[in-house]
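# step 3/5: fold
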Amino acid sequence: MIEPVIDHPPRPLAQRLGAIIWPSFFSACVGTMVLFALVDPVELAQISWPQMDISPVMGYSIGFFGLWAMSASACTFCWLLLRPPSRFNSS
């Protein structure tokens, strides 16, 4: 039986996390600017959660971290799809 050859050694954890966290942070920054240029966070909070009193800073924070989580999940999925097939074919 032929042993599969690993194309390259695994990347360090810091490099793998940086490849996911940095692009997702950048896209969350851009998404936050676009979203809150069009929508006021206080009005959005009154529509979404009328019983809660949310300050503008809290609204911006929730929006930013929500966009960052969505972007990070998309970057993680892309990272999983781009891994070399030799990592999966080992016995």
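# step 4/5: annotate
DSSP finds three helices and no strands in the chain.
# step 5/5: archive (pending)
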